[in-house]
Amino acid sequence: MTKIALVTGGSRGLGRNTALHIARRGGDVVITYHSRSDAADAVVAEIAALGHKAIALRLDTSDVGSFAGFTDRLREGLQTTWKRDSFDHLVNNAGHGDCAPIAETTEAQFDALVNVHFKGVFFLTQALLPLITDGGRIVNLSSGLTRVSAPGWGAYAAVKGAVEVLTLYMAKELGARGIAVNTVAPGAVETDFFGGAVRDTPDFNAFFAGITALGRVGLPDDIGPMIASLLSEDNRWVNAQRIEVSGGQGI
Fold first, then answer.
1. By the 8 A CB rule, do 60 and 34 touch?
2. Across the 251 residues of the chain, what is the mean pLDDT of every consecutive 10-residue run?
3. What does DSSP say about strands 28-33 and 4-7: parallel, antiparallel, or unpaired?
4. Which of 7, 31, 95, 205 is 20 to 30 A distant from 61 in Cα terms?
């Protein structure tokens, strides 16, 4: 049976790349998007062109109150498209960046980061657990900034650090169901994340390239294939791990 992966924030950036590489490895995909339905539809079309099924559903990962309704829409989509009541893999990718010194970070900035990157991950996973098959996989996205500090990223890195701890507890508690849970921590990557800062700001790009052993920042194709491979049977014994994919950032 073809595996089905749900990738949050799959309409752009690393989520899009991950969804496409899952399809290239033989999987079907559910992607979520926040506001750009046109971008999500384009990803669905790309996956269809690869010979696989995909659907796109709107989701605001900061709105815990919407998760019950999202779960119902997901269940309906799974039944309509695949004649199934479950899916196999969850990739908690959706997120945003916010950079400010600790002394200047507002409560609103802090709360937005917590709601999307930690609270949202916790309660969305909780809501979806009844739909994830036994023997499935969960991948939570973190950041290389939990290991190497950069000024202004304290709040963002802290909530990603919380996700890394949460991953360990998910792996422990879901082990009885055969569900493996891991964290993937990308380094700086050229996407539209944080307004495309790494991609479009030469000084920013050069800073992170300068602290990376391989001498450049990452590309989406450096990350998506690794996440897709982690979902495969080739990596069935990898569990409760933080896997950094950064080209040797900050070593």
1. yes
2. 97 97 98 95 98 98 98 98 98 93 97 98 98 98 93 95 98 98 95 74 85 95 98 97 96 88
3. parallel
4. 205
Burial 30-43 (b: 16+ CB within 10 A, else e): bbbbbeeeebbeeb
Q: What is the DSSP letter of 191?
A: S
Whole-angstrom CA distances from 101 to 43, 98, 152, 240, 249 are: 36, 10, 4, 31, 21
pTM (two decimals): 0.96
- Among 3.40.50.720, 3.30.565.10, 3.40.50.300, 3.30.70.20, name the CATH number for the domain at 4-245: 3.40.50.720
Give the helix ranges, DSSP H, for the chain: 13-24, 37-49, 67-82, 107-114, 120-128, 154-174, 193-200, 202-210, 220-230
Show me where the domains of the chain are located: 4-245
In angstroms, rounded to a whole number, what is the distance separating the alpha carbons of residues 247 and 251? 10
Phi, psi of 212 (to 5 degrees): -115, 130
Active site residues: 156
